[in-house]
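Good morning C.,

I know you're traveling, so I'll keep this short. The sequence:
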Amino acid sequence: MSYETRVIMNYQFNSCDIIGRGFSSIVYKGINTITKENVAIKVIKRQFSDQLPLIQNEIQILSKLQGRNILKLYEHFTTQNNIYIITEYCRQGDLGQKLKQFGYLRQEYAVAIIRQIIDGIYVMAQQNIIHRDLKPQNILINEDGIKIADFGFAKPLNQLQNEMNVGTPLYMSPETIIKSQYNAKSDIWSLGVLFYEVLFGYPPFQAQTEQELIFKILNQRISFPDVPPVSETVKDFIKQCLIVDPYLRLGITELLKHPLIKRTAKKAEKFVRPTDTESTEQTIKSEIPNSSEPWTTNSSNKKLVYVNCKNPQVNAILNKYLNTKSNQGTNNNTVTKNQPLLEEISLILQSQFSLCIFLNNIISKLKDIKLITPLLNEKCRIIFSKHLQSIKDTIYKQLIESDNKFKFKDWQLFCKENAYSRFSAKFLLENNQFTKTCQEYNQMIKSNKSLIIEYQKYDSEFYQILFGLEWKVIKKIIKNLIIEFNHIIAQNIDTSNLCNKINKSQQIEISFLQQLYYYYEIVDKYYLKEFDEKKFAQESNIQQYMVLKELKISDYLELRQLIKRLMKS
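The tokens, ready to paste straight into the viewer:
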């Protein structure tokens, strides 16, 4: 194989000196021919024009960020064939490579690394930017310290609207992996996972599927192995990062004041020189609950306080869950012989709650989809909204109004369990958003009398759905939605070569198409006959369709085959 030396402006590199590869790029070790300084040169072929938004985003973000623990951007060039991004060269690789080499790092070295990452996060926070993909592979190591790199997914908080989640599931915060929501504390969760992995050699939550990962995050307490030993201060820091509720999770300003970070940094081993973090009193803006929501933050004790709730039972549940530690333990009064039945109740409730989240996400994504068939988008949003309202109302009545809608045999016993309080609080905190989603489309129907008359005259089948869920009609409408949306996607994807790459926007579209097809299967399998909650809970895998995965042309072709059979049915 022959190698060549390439020159771009005052930079030079050899095609054999590859130090990294990305989805559409290759990173080379290069040199500044004027200063003789080593640099990293990322080369992106312009044929990947669909990646331009990500590339431009990375350049724009790095241009804004100036910090000793942020990868330094020197220059960027665009030629007829390529885009070149010139950054500082980190000769000691990344943190992921170090973990492969050493397994894990001793506490003093791990703390030194975390201090520097926090410095970098603080610099981002000053610009109101979140990284969204913090993990060991994106932490580079140089002689002068740690550098946060790979800002392709980074964004200012005020530009995050209806985002699909990105990054690596093991490091994603719960609100991201479950609800595709980001906030100023999403990176803090990733930091906690990363810190744990650096100390012990593996992440705190390990799972084979996203569904299993979500279950463990929501139901397992953080535990620490005895070997290697770590201090209680370190454990507390990690716990504060890995609080499921983002409003209770510490923010960057609070982490800077944590005893672990305020202490003077000790010297670390050769591959990293830790620096002290400069604490600051400046407040970093973060997302807080909307004032219209029935809860607010209390800065004095960092707990959520439920306010202005008319229902005393709701008030009691949330106060118990959010303002005490009673939800942390297990109920010693659990009757062992009834445990399987209680676990079955939890499984059924969780599956219905997951379906609510799934439907809510679909509704938000449908807003941005432009279809050819008149009113098809509107019809589908109404269908999903009515389905969401039906499920959430059933769960609410089961939990709060003592109306045993699910006909659970041991419901009263379950209500005495901590699992009841945990699930109820989790549902109630989301129910507000579900209610808003449903109200938006119900209001649209109520206020548009001409539309209702039009449905009554020209679409009598759909007119029935305005008054109840007619599943045969719904199945037909969702089928039309899938076929039409698939047609739109197919026009923009070249499937002639399995090696072709799928860009980010296409990944999102195909993922959404998968969700729609999955919903069609749910309707066909479970709702066209008497709905069996237990069977649905045991067989459905909703969570796996709520995470954006990297898809290949072959994945899309398999989906198209399913849709092709659907068209013939």
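Safe travels,
E.
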